[in-house]
Amino acid sequence: xxxxxxxxxxxxxxxxxxxxxxxxxxxxxxxxxxxxxxxxxxxxxxxxxxxxxxxxxxxxxxxxxxxxxxxxxxxxxxxxxxxxxxxxxxxxxxxxxxxxxxxxxxxxxxxxxxxxxxxxxxxxxxxxxxxxxxxxxxxxxxxxxxxxxxxxxxxxxxxxxxxxxxxxxxxxxxxxxxxxxxxxxxxxxxxxxxxxxxxxxxxxxxxxxxxxxxxxxxxxxxxxxxxxxxxxxxxxxxxxxxxxxxxxxxxxxxxxxxxxxxxxxxxxxxxxxxxxxxxxxxxxxxxxxxxxxxxxxxxxxxxxxxxxxxxxxxxxxxxxxxxxxxxxxxxxxxxxxxxxxxxxxxxxxxxxxxxxxxxxxxxxxxxxxxxxxxxxxxxxxxxxxxxxxxxxxxxxxxxxxxxxxxxxxxxxxxxxxxxxxxxxxxxxxxxxxxxxxxxxxxxxxxxxxxxxxxxxxxxxxxxxxxxxxxxxxxxxxxxxxxxxxx
Length: 486
Hints:
Arylsulfatase, C-terminal domain, Alkaline Phosphatase, subunit A
């Protein structure tokens, strides 16, 4: 689609005859917008200061949100690391991009990794003259033997893997790792390092990655071709576990806050239960990591401003999925509940995107691919294989089409795809079918009246259930999903 706000308003062409000479007005072609994506891991949508739902400190994002389009109802359609990330980069749902579960040595024989042949939005930008950079966690390549000798790779189960240049999907500058959760001493592969050439850094991961991002923006070490527009992904692992891996200065910000004030939500299990204990032991650490990441984001945004790049840079802040942290007796993610599924989405483009808080837009991760390309004037370059739909017009001013529903899937056994859960979510309701030991357990929650999802309202005779089930069935068929609802 053509977006009038993406072009300058040109003066009407005029032909003036003066002293026998024809004078034609010309104008400079507008610069292509840059793209900065800040992707965080396991950050639930409720854990933002401006949302006023949890007492967490996020001053940088509070300020950023006031300048941006904020999508309150954004979800992670498959709320676990590799599937969510694959949806973001491919614009496809999990059964098409083949990443139905986390990439590790257990799923590697089933080909669970982002396919080299997949055309990611970064590939499209590369083909259209962009210099692309990637910093931080990737987690889209399957480990193979001999396993990289990092602490999360064992013969029994390996997680971490190097991404060779041919699998970097158009990212010219690469400073990244597969997945590794020792945040206080992270490891990375430099751009030109081979598989055995990784190194460790004695610095908290987000802080180090913010410094690398600022260097990229400044082009301090010739990280990019300065004659080209750029895209940069900064992928920070915290607030992902290990929750204790956070600098003490952020933990200290919460030391005088009573634990009782942080455990009032009715979906937090009792203190004497395993998940209740997990929540109480880690909630302050989780918040501390969020506040620390928020500070690093503030540094990046300030650098963007000081370099006078902010006006022509689209900034996207998003998480791959959320985190229950014990709520609903769920340890973390990959479940049907809001704390796992609802994620932050904040998008800023000064002078183009109207700042506003939106409580009705039903965002899906695959839609971000075509929407970003559309905003950047590259709508026609979106591959046909992309499942997502562009909502660029809606992002700009809230006046375009918006999704009617969100479709949910997860906990899929790669050997038995007719497994896990499938669901459909609207602004008011969530319907989900969960397979537990081969038996379907259906759920219906009223998200407005019961935001903590305490009461299962499912009744198969209900017209609402029947209508939402028909929509879900149609989506399953459209996406060749083998899940059966009975």
